[in-house]
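thread: overnight batch results

M.L. [08:02]
morning all. the overnight job finished for the chain we discussed friday. pasting input first so we're all looking at the same thing
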Amino acid sequence: MILGKRTNAVFGSSPDRLRRALAIAVASSALALGASTTYAQEATRLIVPFPPGGGTDTIARSVAQTLSDGLGYPVVVDNRAGAGGIIGASALLQAPPDGKTLFLSSNSVFTINPAVRPDMPYDPNASFQGLAILGTAPLCLLVRSDAPWADLAALLTTAKQEPGKLTYASFGPGSVAHFAGALLADEAGIELLHVPYKGSAPAMQDLLGGRVDMSFDTVTASLPQIAANRVRCLGVTSNTRFEALPDTPTLDAAGVPGYHFTTWVAVVAKAGTPANVLGPLQAALKNALAQPALASRLASLGLATAGASELNFEALLAEEIPRYQDIASRAAIRID
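M.L. [08:03]
and the structure it wrote out:
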């Protein structure tokens, strides 16, 4: 009875007033549905082929926010992890080539997978249209702070004295960290035992726990542990010192002449996306990278954006795929 009285107080007792109120409610629902449908149609999906919380995912979320502001509609990160990035790449290829689905990944999906996986559901040269290289980054060679090796030379001495005894962690078989370690072993003339993990976090946990001797990891994951004095970085894999670690030598300078291994992050669309769609997206990405706040954020995540716009996606594929095929062949790296 009380509910009936409250209803009458609002609508009155007239059937016409009640009908008008119901009509207003229906119209409001229709407008809300139309607004949400428009929102969904305008939103762009940015697929990341790695789990939430990792370095690439963090980069993607930073870029998505700035890109959303520039485009005037939402850019939503969609994590599709698994199979070394293949699940995420396949999700892009199942979407229409209309620019509403984009893909952000490190070079592992574009240039390492073709070198180690015999059956690929995509062709990096034919399946993707490069939009922007967001930046480049080295990996860090890490040991615990209490490890007996003060520098790379000392570690190499131990590795030569005890072939195959020293272990190094990576964040997965066939990952960039796996390749970085295989390349170090090959160029330094040593034997290392590879211990793959399902991601950077468990690899770091076992390094800190003393279950592996060293690891290759991203700058993003390494910097907090270095700052907390839990790990020591013996060198970075780039051919120049990295701005975020100015006192850390390159592996080239620290004892392995010629060593060079750099990762990069790119945003791509599905091949076949019309030029009139690609153009505004490329312009928006370029403008996003020019924003000081985003550039600073990416630098804090270990990504060097200087010169990134000059890097050519197709040229990187042509250069890196044969190189990684050679490393994979010499180190017998293969993912079935």
